[in-house]
Amino acid sequence: MPLYEHIFMARQDVTPQQVEAMVDQYKGVIEQNGGSVDKTEMWGVKSLAYRIKKNRKAHFTMFNLNAPAPAVAEMERQMRINEDILRFMTIKVEELETEPSVMMQKRDRDERKDRERRERDTDGVGFAGNEGEEA
């Protein structure tokens, strides 16, 4: 079966639970039509380069699909109908990535930097008030 990477953007005012429901719905469409979703990555809310349907931000989600073309076509048809989906894109690939995508690696790196910054800042907090005091 052909392999695909599929990314869709949902409106920013949709809750994360609603995005997860959409993910489950579209996974069901793929599986009902003889395909499988090998990996799902929810990238979170990201800023858009320009407004799309009056939205400045969107929830981004990526699927790695192993599915026949009619299954992908049906999923895309249902996404066109859904008013909460701003855009989507499906790309046929030779092989699927098994490790986290670049977006997830970036998020991990950013979270690690934030955590290190917080640890560094909290280490100095306890000693800042004691400077200049005699024991």
UniProtKB/TrEMBL annotation:
Q: Which gene encodes it?
A: rpsF
User: What Pfam family is a match, any one?
Assistant: Ribosomal_S6
Instruction: Give a yes or no for keyword Cell wall biogenesis/degradation in this entry.
Output: no
Q: Can you tell me which family this protein belongs to? A: Belongs to the bacterial ribosomal protein bS6 family.
InterPro entries according to UniProt:
Ribosomal_bS6, Ribosomal_bS6_sf, Ribosomal_S6_plastid/chlpt, Transl_elong_EF1B/ribsomal_bS6
Source organism per entry reads: Microvirga terrestris
Signal peptide feature range: none
Record NCBIfam families: S6
Locate the compositionally biased regions of type Basic and acidic residues. 105-123
Q: Does the UniProt entry include the keyword RNA-binding?
A: yes
Q: Which PANTHER family match?
A: MITOCHONDRIAL 28S RIBOSOMAL PROTEIN S6, SMALL RIBOSOMAL SUBUNIT PROTEIN BS6M
What GO cellular component term, any one, is given?
ribosome
What UniProt keywords apply to this chain's record, in alphabetical order? Ribonucleoprotein, Ribosomal protein, RNA-binding, rRNA-binding
Q: Where is this region: Disordered?
A: 99-135
Main role? Answer: Binds together with bS18 to 16S ribosomal RNA.
Domain of life according to the entry:
Bacteria
Output this protein's name: Small ribosomal subunit protein bS6
